[in-house]
Specification:
70 residues, mainly alpha, 44% helix, 0% strand
């Protein structure tokens, strides 16, 4: 459950299920990707992101890296 008081107030103390969020985000397509890039760049400029490692939990991203070398 989120601890953000604003979120709790706006959501009437309820949290959407993971599949609801995933369906909502996947329907946004390119707009959501652009928003993510803007947010990522803002966090980077603020020094909130380490340059050593960046990971997204549960994300399946396309890659051309060799599976044997990763």
């Amino acid at each position: 459950m989120p601890e953000d008081v604003t979120f709790i107030a706006l959501s009437c103390d309820s949290a959407p299920h993971l599949t609801t969020l995933a369906a909502s985000i996947s329907g946004q397509g390119n707009e959501m990707a652009q928003l993510f890039v803007q947010e990522f760049n803002l966090c980077d400029r603020q020094g909130l992101i380490s340059q050593l490692l960046f990971a997204i939990k549960g994300a399946k991203l396309p890659s051309n890296a060799s599976k044997t070398k990763t």
